Every structure is written in structure tokens, then in C-alpha cells.
Amino acid sequence: MSTQESTDQPCELTAVDYDEILALWERAGLSVRPEGRDGPAAFAQQLASGLQRVVGRRVGSALVAVIVLTHDGRKGWINRLAVDPAYRRHGLARALIAEAERWFVDELCLEVWAALIEGYNHESQALFDRLGYRRHDIVYVSKRTRSEA
């Protein structure tokens, strides 16, 4: 990726960008549930809540990186960080995480932020390690009303 091709600033994404975001998540290998919690209606509802922000990076008009940021008023969460495989190792994930941290601190006054990373995703684990995130020994449990949720 050349410097000319990349966008210098993150771009705000909305529900209008849903199909492009979903396609990027799939290209990046994220597990998605488009019939459940990752579906277009749920995505739009989460954005409308005011507790979620979606930020991307583009090369030309193509979306090549995305991050979903949420908060519960006390902690910020980094979710759904995805970079197109063809654009990895160019600092896009690092730039989006920096934007997340800036938003959490400057606009929301949150002092703690976190990310949940699948156990098999060693690349993401290493990235967060390099950025100073500390691992915790936590057991994640969930209860779902539907299998696709």
C-alpha cells in the first residue's frame, strides 16, 4: 500500500455502510452472525443507541479496516477490529486502536478499555500485547436466546 492510496484520517461509518463492513469482516476471517447480533437491524439499533461508534479506514473508496467501539459508561470496548488481509502490516489496526483510545479518553473520560480476542487469533493477541494491553485470566460465559444471536 502506498502512502498516496491510504487515507490519513479515520472515517465515521454508519448503518449505510453495513454491507461493506460485513464483507470486510468476512474477508478478514471474523466469525459473524448476519442473521443475529451482527445483522443489519441489530447493527443500526446499536449505532442509534449512542453507545457505539464505528470507525474505518479507506484506500480510495474501498473500506480496508474497521473497528467497532462501545462503552457502558465506565469501560470502553474495542470490538470487531478487522483489516483486509491485503492491507495488513501497514499500521491500520494500530491507527484504529489509537483512535479508539483517543475517543475513550478525550470524549468519554473513560480510564479503562478492553478487547475480547478469540483464543486462536494469535496475531491480534500479539498486536494488543505490543500496544501495552495486559492479559487477564477471565472465563467468558454467555447465554443466548437463539443460536444465531
Write structural notes for this entry.
The protein is α+β, with helices and mostly antiparallel strands and 149 residues long. It has a single domain (11-130), classed as Gcn5-related N-acetyltransferase (GNAT) (Aminopeptidase), CATH 3.40.630. The protein is 30% helix and 21% strand. It has 4 helices and 5 strands, in the order βααβββαβα. Strands 1-2-3-4-5 form a 5-stranded mixed sheet, sandwiched between helices. The longest helix has 16 residues, at 92-107. It is globular.
H and E string: EHHEEEHEH
| CATH level-two architecture | 3-Layer(aba) Sandwich
Count the strands? 5
Derived from helix and strand composition plus strand pairing, the structural class reads alpha+beta
CATH topology: Aminopeptidase
| Radius of gyration, in angstroms, nearest whole number | 15 Å
How many structurally independent domains?
Answer: 1
Query: What is the global morphology?
Result: globular
Text of the CATH class:
Alpha Beta
Number of helices: 4
Mean pLDDT: 90
CATH homologous superfamily name?
A: Gcn5-related N-acetyltransferase (GNAT)
Q: How much helical structure, as a percent, in the residues?
A: 25-40%
**In this structure, how is the largest beta sheet organized?**
5 strands, mixed
Q: In terms of per-residue confidence, which ranges show pLDDT below 50 for 5 or more consecutive residues?
A: none
Q: Give the amount of beta strand, in percent.
A: 15-25%
Strand order of the largest sheet: 1-2-3-4-5
Distance between the amino and carboxyl termini: 36 Å
